[in-house]
Amino acid sequence: MKLCLDCGLAFDQPDWRCPACFREPVMIDGHLAFAPALAAEGEGFEPEYFEKLTKLEAQNFWFRSRNRLLVWALRKYFPQAKSLFEIGCGTGFVLSGIQQALPEVNLCGSEVFSAGLTFAAEWLPGVELFQMDARRIPFREEFDVIGAFDVLEHVEEDEDVLAQMHQATRPNGGILITVPRHPFLWSPVDEYARHVRRYTARELTQKVRRAGYEVTRVTSFVSLLFPGLMLSRFKQALIRSEFDPEAEYRVGPRVNLGLEKILDAERALIRAGVSFPAGGSMLMVARRN
């Protein structure tokens, strides 16, 4: 069901014109915009990051490995899913990976910055993309799965986002979430990325449960690389004058391939049932009650 953000009416019709108050979203750069005031300048991110991301994601070990983990989790925990909505889809790299692996799943994506949707549209021809504030989702019980992949840490009101995700999830549907883990790893990298927080498993679990979900699986990832990550982050926190925000991503092709193989092995362990207690990031799977 579509949800009018002006009067609160849920309705089911082909277009977005509300049958009660007759309001409809505007168009920005060819996409429906539900939060036009934030389309060019919002909180928690910088629009110019998108161009940098497009140069990193397709080749970098971290982004590629996260995509494979998410595709596995979607197949494992939501094998009957027919629809998936990603909030904060950025350049569309994750949705593109899901589309290639699971072409039968109907995909939608949203991003608060219209600049991100310009890049996403190139990755995702035929996929419906919206400009939207995740704190106000214009759907009710519409999607089998909703994904938020490294999004919640950018939003001060993360519990509002989770409540909105619950509203938009179909009964017996669920969510996939990834976030940066362990507050003690806070460093200039987090400040540069405009993070509000890093999560503990307990904090995220409590917030997801309060939103109305039952947690199915929690595991860290980037766990086999955790010792090196800790050393890197502690060094960055101590020597701020030498901080290079892109250093962790700027690795040679052989090192990049080696790190990707290590994360392939880690994913095999997660698939076998291992839930890592420590790692740079956390994956959470939950179902709607």
Annotated CATH topology: Rossmann fold
Q: Biggest sheet, in brief?
A: 9 strands, mixed
| Derived structural class | alpha/beta
CATH architecture label name = 3-Layer(aba) Sandwich
Order of helices and strands: EEEEHHEHEHEEHEHHEHHE
Instruction: Give the percentage of residues in beta strands.
Output: 15-25%
User: Uncertain regions: pLDDT < 50 for 5+ in a row?
Assistant: none
Number of domains: 1
Describe the structure.
By secondary structure, the protein is α/β, with parallel strands linked by helices. The chain has one domain (25-288): Vaccinia Virus protein VP39 (Rossmann fold, 3-Layer(aba) Sandwich). 35% of the residues lie in helices and 21% in strands. The chain contains nine helices and eleven strands. A hairpin with a 2-residue loop joins strand 3 and strand 4. Helix 2 crosses helix 3 (93-101) and helix 2 runs parallel beside helix 9 (253-271). 41% of the residues are buried. The model has no long low-confidence stretch (mean pLDDT 93).
Main traits of this protein?
single chain; 289 residues; alpha/beta; Rossmann fold; 9-stranded mixed β-sheet; two-stranded antiparallel ribbon; 9 helices; 11 strands; 21% strand
Q: SSE layout and pairings?
A:
Elements (H helix, E strand, L loop, with lengths): L1 E2 L6 E2 L14 E3 L2 E3 L15 H8 L4 H17 L5 E5 L5 H9 L4 E6 L2 H10 L4 E4 L11 E7 L8 H11 E12 L7 H5 L8 H10 L2 E9 L4 H13 L14 H19 L9 E8 L1
Parallel strand pairs: 4-7, 5-6, 5-8, 6-7, 8-9
Antiparallel strand pairs: 1-2, 3-4, 9-11, 10-11
Helix pairs in contact: 2-3, 2-9
